[in-house]
Design a protein that fits this description.
The chain is 42% helix and 19% strand. It is an alpha/beta fold. Helix 3 crosses helix 10 and helix 6 packs parallel to helix 8. The longest helix is centred in the middle third of the chain and has 18 residues. GO terms for molecular function: phosphatidylcholine lysophospholipase activity. This is Lysophospholipase L1.
């Protein structure tokens, strides 16, 4: 299905948080371009050629898909901020929207309720605008990052909510969390073995180049392209 859709030269939009934007990968940097402003903070566009979406962009070019990708992932954004600014993030000519978010809501007292409500609202708005929507889960974090004091909730809770939304809304889910855990089990590794790399962010949360490649591989396998 998606192979045929992409062959038509669709416009792909990516929205979400820093993981959506490709933070963590090497050669990744913020530009001066402002995506949105909220709560006195400017969210800046990120360039990330070695990220999951950077690899996807190159793959589509190499395989002669006449698609364009625009990433409006906002590092540090909560889902309520993305929901509030959805009309700024989405263009009328976007055809396919990848949504990857939720980790920042772990810091909020009612974070998982916010995530569920806001993500459902975002998906509904996108569908009402005629967009095809694909939901992605984040990847696992190392234990030390997962249990920072400000993590009121954990990644597995975020993932379960996203899985539920994808099922209830009948939209495609790219389950990066499951894919990475299965890779670790198969190769008898732990996330600490692969979530760090040369010139990567190496904070234990944002995916290294190794994990970015797994995200990319999972995406093209799930889309069957």
């Amino acid at each position: 299905m998606y192979k045929d859709i992409l062959a038509k030269g669709v416009k792909i939009k990516i929205i979400g948080d820093s993981v959506a934007a490709g933070a963590g990968s090497s050669m990744s940097f913020k530009t001066e371009e402002v995506i949105m402003e909220e709560d006195r903070k400017k969210f800046l566009k990120r360039i990330a050629p070695n990220s999951w979406w950077g690899l996807l962009e190159e793959y589509l070019k190499e395989n002669y898909y006449a698609c364009t990708i625009e990433n409006k992932g906002c590092g540090g954004a909560y889902t309520y901020q993305i929901d509030k600014h959805i009309d700024e993030l989405i263009s009328i000519d976007d055809n396919l929207v990848f949504v990857l978010m939720g980790l920042n809501d772990r810091k909020l007292i009612n974070g998982m309720e916010e995530l569920k409500s806001n993500c459902e609202g975002i998906v509904d708005k996108l569908i009402s605008k005629g967009k095809m929507v694909i939901l992605l889960t984040p990847t696992p974090s190392v234990h030390s990052n997962e249990y920072y004091p400000n993590r009121l909730y954990h990644t597995d809770e975020v993932v379960e909510i996203l899985r539920s939304i994808a099922k209830n809304k009948n939209i495609l889910l790219v389950d990066n969390y499951k894919y990475v855990l299965e890779h670790l089990k198969k190769n008898q590794m732990v996330i600490d073995d692969i979530n760090y790399g040369d010139n990567c962010m190496n904070d234990g949360l944002h995916p290294s180049d190794y994990v970015q490649k797994l995200m990319f591989q999972n995406l093209i396998e799930t889309l069957e392209i």
